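Please decode residue identities from the backbone states below.
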């Protein structure tokens, strides 16, 4: 069955695309014209000029143990540029997608998916709070397309509404991959024209996605933040856990990444340390990060496939505001993505505390003065106060150690609920979520039963009790202005429900104005 892998190209980038193809051993071969309904279509073929032999790695391994010779195979690639009516598309064959995708409209595939697909079975996505996800699902109707909270889809494969016209499966990523017995180069121009009409049609289903940043000042600003992150260990920057090229997903563990600098050669792994990047920038590029980001990296596949790219193209980086780097380009998550997170967070049972609505600074100062050498931190004061006045069992510092791992299960216990208490700004409350998930993992091994004061305590509900540092109250959890925190909350909700427990959040506040007043007395 014929298959077409089609990219949509920015017409302004056609010249650059041709230069890139030529520079990578794909030479112009022939140009032909097609005509349909008084419309002219131009097709240009670029084909591997001289196929270089690429070693077959597994034969080398066999040759070390058996009496056979290592083998090589010629490597070919091709690209067919189709342009008409100020529209440009490219058919990719072999490894040509590496060179085409740099000049492509990377929204093209998801734009098509949102208009054509009626169901899906495979999707790959970028999670803001984590890394890329690849999931395989049974067929679902698209109205029930189950996106995760905090995920932006960049690859999806499914069944189109019109199977007769498009075939039984369409893969949509940076490109669109079509398989149909009637599709081929002979009528590829008509298929491209049909895709243009699809893009002009209505969206059937909104798919959460990322938005590419084009403003140069914003790109420079994000580059600066990336450099600061590397210099100051503010955030993780490493090799992207999965890279998408067209509809091809590539995984770092299946490839060798070789970075050459003016002074040395590095083999990069999929957990590139910030200290490594910082050291390379200082010692090999005199602190010039732009030169480091433009340094060439050879990506070597097990099948002998070889790609040359810039270091920046393989770095994975996210910041607090929802921007992230992928494929050397800056993106931001769209409103569908953000709304999905907010909707999931607002489904968490949220209670505004009446027992301790505000952190009492005056009482805290008095309490600290009474402790005389004992632990005096603010969360300890909260736990003691709630235990003494409202019937909670104080579990603070009560540690459980399954398999040698030390985990604080909870701060407070009451009514089949464990409470994890944390104080601070939303950006600093992420630890509460990490602790809650770790506690659940520990409790799951003991059928959600733990010991409290020598008696069994069955855990039915997990509650984050957050004393939020802010001057005004919130109406809903989603009013908190921290994308990373909200995303982690949404992930925690699902994590808890999947274990048959009920997630909940208690809200109290710590006002800095009250703190200053208490300190002034």
């Amino acid at each position: 069955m014929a298959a077409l892998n089609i990219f949509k190209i920015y017409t302004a980038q056609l010249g650059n695309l041709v230069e890139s193809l030529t520079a990578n051993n794909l030479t112009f071969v022939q140009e032909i014209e097609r005509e349909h309904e008084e419309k002219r279509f131009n097709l240009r073929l670029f084909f591997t000029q001289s196929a270089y032999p690429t070693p077959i790695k597994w034969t080398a391994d066999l040759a070390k143990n058996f009496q056979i010779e290592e083998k090589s195979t010629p490597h070919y690639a091709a690209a067919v540029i189709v342009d008409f009516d100020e529209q440009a598309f490219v058919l990719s064959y072999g490894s040509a997608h590496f060179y085409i995708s740099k000049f492509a409209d990377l929204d093209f595939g998801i734009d098509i998916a949102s208009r054509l697909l009626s169901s899906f079975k495979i999707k790959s996505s970028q999670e803001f709070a984590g890394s890329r996800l690849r999931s395989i699902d049974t067929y679902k109707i698209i109205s029930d397309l189950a996106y995760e909270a905090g995920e932006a889809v960049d690859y999806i494969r499914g069944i189109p509404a019109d199977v007769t016209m498009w075939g039984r499966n369409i893969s949509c990523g940076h490109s669109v991959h079509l398989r149909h017995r009637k599709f081929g180069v002979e009528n590829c121009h008509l298929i491209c024209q049909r895709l243009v009409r699809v893009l002009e049609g209505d969206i059937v289903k909104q798919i959460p996605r990322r938005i590419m940043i084009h403003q140069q000042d914003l790109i420079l600003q994000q580059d600066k933040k990336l450099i600061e992150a590397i210099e100051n260990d503010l955030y993780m920057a490493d090799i992207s856990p999965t890279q998408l090229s067209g509809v091809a997903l590539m995984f770092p563990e299946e490839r060798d990444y070789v970075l050459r600098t003016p002074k040395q050669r590095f083999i990069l792994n999929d957990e590139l340390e910030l200290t490594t990047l910082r050291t390379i920038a200082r010692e090999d590029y005199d602190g010039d990060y732009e030169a480091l980001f433009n340094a060439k990296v050879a990506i070597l596949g097990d099948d002998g496939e070889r790609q040359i790219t810039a270091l920046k193209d393989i770095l994975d980086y996210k910041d607090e505001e929802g921007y992230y780097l992928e494929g050397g380009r800056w993106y931001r998550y769209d409103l569908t993505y953000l709304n999905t997170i907010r909707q999931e967070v607002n489904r968490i049972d949220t209670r505004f505390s009446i027992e301790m609505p505000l952190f009492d600074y005056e009482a805290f100062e008095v309490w600290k003065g009474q402790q005389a050498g004992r632990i005096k931190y603010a969360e300890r004061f909260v736990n003691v106060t709630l235990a003494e006045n409202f019937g909670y069992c104080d579990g603070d510092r009560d540690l459980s150690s399954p398999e040698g791992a030390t985990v604080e299960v909870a701060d407070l216990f009451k009514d089949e609920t464990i409470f994890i208490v944390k104080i601070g700004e939303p950006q600093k409350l992420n630890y509460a979520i990490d602790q809650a998930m770790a506690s659940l993992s520990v409790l799951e091994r003991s059928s959600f039963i733990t010991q409290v004061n020598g008696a069994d305590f069955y855990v039915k509900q997990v509650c984050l009790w957050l004393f939020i540092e802010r001057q005004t109250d919130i109406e809903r959890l989603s009013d908190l202005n921290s994308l990373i925190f909200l995303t982690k909350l949404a992930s925690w909700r699902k994590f808890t429900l999947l274990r048959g427990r009920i997630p909940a959040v208690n809200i109290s506040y710590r006002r800095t104005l009250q703190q200053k007043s208490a300190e002034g007395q």
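Observation: The longest helix spans residues 216-232.
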